[in-house]
Design brief:
The chain has about 325 residues and is α/β, with parallel strands linked by helices. The N terminus is likely disordered. A hairpin with a 2-residue loop joins strand 6 and strand 7. About 40% of the residues lie in helices and about 20% in strands.
Length: about 325
């Protein structure tokens, strides 16, 4: 998408203009400290608050006093909308790179510098569009390919920590606001690759990021145990999130089954298992069933946008 202001011309000695976009929603007490760590690595931080309301006034006022730009949305619209609001401002003001960061993510002190070095060393053939983290909470990425320069390349990645080039944003476009929350990063990665760009990991980087909670695996109330007697666990998502996960993955399967058949097979296997586990193990087994069933139906009929109000109230 074209911007209102062209990027600055870069030479060997020029320092690129890097802007961080941080969507917020009811930010916690550690938010200000994490912003300070981020601000030391970039030229500007733009916070887009996604409808937190008056409860976030004090935290956001402190962020503004610290010199960060704060944009407040009147209502909750989802992470894609919040990211796009910030990206538009960043591009209009001449950003060469945009850094995405969730409000609960802590980056290593040299993360942005490492990512920019990857961009600087990438040749034109590689056509690098995104640099992402190498590990989340110690769990490493597993690159699928290796570029001619030796960079590990991945088909998709978690969006927190994305460092995206201006060329990639202007060519591939912004995030799909119709998806609202889940799979926003996956869809963007698939679209970026279809536009001819690649995604590389910033080798050796490890971020701290809250990725939800784990629940005990108790199908129909029966605990499943390890050999040592411990109860097995699984990654738990609320019924609210399960609605979006089911709906949006089906939406993406319809979009990409021709161009990315391997991804379609992988996501179908992974998410089917996750949905079945959520329904039979709980917590909130009935709410999980209702949310997943409705999300599946809405995915099949290609309904997008925010979760219906009646369903949100029902599964809350």
């Amino acid at each position: 998408m074209p911007s209102q202001r062209p990027p600055r011309s870069l030479d060997a000695d020029a320092r690129p203009n890097v802007v961080a976009i941080v969507p917020s929603f009811h930010p916690d007490e550690g938010f200000e400290a994490r912003l300070g760590l981020l601000a030391a690595q970039v030229d500007r931080v733009i916070i887009v608050d996604d409808g937190s309301g008056p409860g976030a006034d004090e935290v956001l006022a402190a962020a503004a006093d610290a010199g960060h730009t704060v944009i407040r949305l009147e209502r909750n619209a989802g992470i894609a909308t919040a990211l796009n609001q910030g990206v538009r401002v960043a591009l209009a003001e001449g950003a060469d790179y945009v850094v995405n960061l969730d409000q609960d993510t802590t980056l290593p002190a040299d993360y942005v510098a490492i990512a920019l070095d990857v961009f600087a060393r990438a040749n034109a053939v590689t056509n690098l569009g995104i640099v992402c983290v190498d590990a989340v909470n110690g769990a490493p990425a597993l690159p699928t390919w290796t570029s001619p320069e030796g960079f590990g390349l991945v088909p998709e990645a978690i969006q927190t920590g994305f460092v995206i080039s201006r060329a990639c944003l202007e060519t591939a476009g912004l995030f799909d606001e119709r998806l609202v929350i889940d799979t926003v990063d996956t869809e963007y990665c698939l679209r970026v690759r279809d536009a001819g760009f690649r995604i590389a990991v910033a080798k050796g980087t490890d971020i701290r990021h809250a990725i939800g909670r784990r629940a005990e695996l108790r199908p129909f109330g029966i605990p499943m145990r390890h050999a040592d007697g411990r109860i097995s666990t699984y990654q738990y998502h609320s019924p609210f999130r399960r609605y979006y996960i089911a709906r949006n993955n089906i939406d993406l399967i319809f979009r990409y089954w021709r161009t990315h058949p391997r991804w379609v097979l992988q996501v179908t296997k992974r998410e089917t298992g996750g949905m079945v586990t959520s329904i039979v193990s709980g917590p909130q087994r009935l709410a999980q069933l209702i949310a997943i069933t409705t999300g599946t139906f809405h995915g099949l009929i290609r309904r997008r946008g925010m979760i219906p109000g009646w369903l949100r109230r029902l599964v809350a």
